[in-house]
Amino acid sequence: MRVEAHERFQGIYWVIFENGTRFLATENLTPGRKVYGEQLVSQGSREYRLWDPYRSKLGALIMKGVKRLPLKAGDRVLYLGAASGTTASHVSDIVGQGGRVYCVEFSPRSMRDLVNNVCQYRPNMIPVLEDARFPEKYRSLVGIVNVIYCDIAQPEQARVLADNADMFLKKGGESFLAVKARSIDVAKKPNEVFKAEVEVLRERGFKIHECLSLEPYDRDHMMVVARYGA
User: Fold this and answer.
1) What is the pLDDT, as a whole number, of residue 155?
2) CA separation for the pair 127, 160 (Å, rounded)
3) Hey, what CATH class is 58-228 in?
């Protein structure tokens, strides 16, 4: 087994086993601790967490060959829809001790798991129990960020991202929007939903970099990578 840095993206690695299979990974910020049952591997003094793209839309985006991944060490990230912390913990690994991940989650049960299993062991993750549709409610808890990651299961996903960007994202900041077509309108074809959400972002001042389907990892899902206000 060997570990190699990703050919394009900082803080992301390939774990390559003797049979030739390879898996995404991030360097574990909390050695010895798992978040969602992922495999841990060591090389030298460093420990890595295998990243399952079937359980993480950001992992799926990388596996789908995204060209631009605006996420690096030291970034301040507002994560909307953090759930129990599967993807947010990998973001935490990437931004490192010098970064911050503000984790907004509406479900008390998911927040309890996030706090007890993840945040209490990762000082760069700040849990925020609020509804992402109302960013003014957590304005005092979150400062200006340079990345927003939005993965919420409710209608008007692009509007929610844009409202949060207006309040927290610096001009020229980057964003990820996981569009869940079935959460927006089950009667419309997914492509129609995707186009409508992308148009909302454009109207709100975003420049679209890439739009990628996440199949086969996630059905009827698309990830939009966009820059805000520049």
Assistant:
1) 83
2) 19
3) alpha beta
Give the range among 3-7, 86-90, 116-120, 183-187 with minimum mean pLDDT.
183-187
103-107, 168-172, 226-230, range with the lowest pLDDT = 226-230
- Report whether pLDDT(190) > 90: no
Helix axes 157-168, 190-203, angle to 10 degrees: 20
207 CB-near residues (< 8 Å, 6+ apart): 226, 227, 230
Q: Are strands 100-105 and 125-129 parallel, antiparallel or unpaired?
A: parallel
Where are the chain's structural domains? 2-52, 58-228
Please compute Rg for the chain using Cα positions: 17
Q: Do 20 and 30 contact (CB within 8 A), yes or no?
A: no
Q: Which fold has domain 2-52?
A: Phosphorylase Kinase; domain 1 (3.30.200)
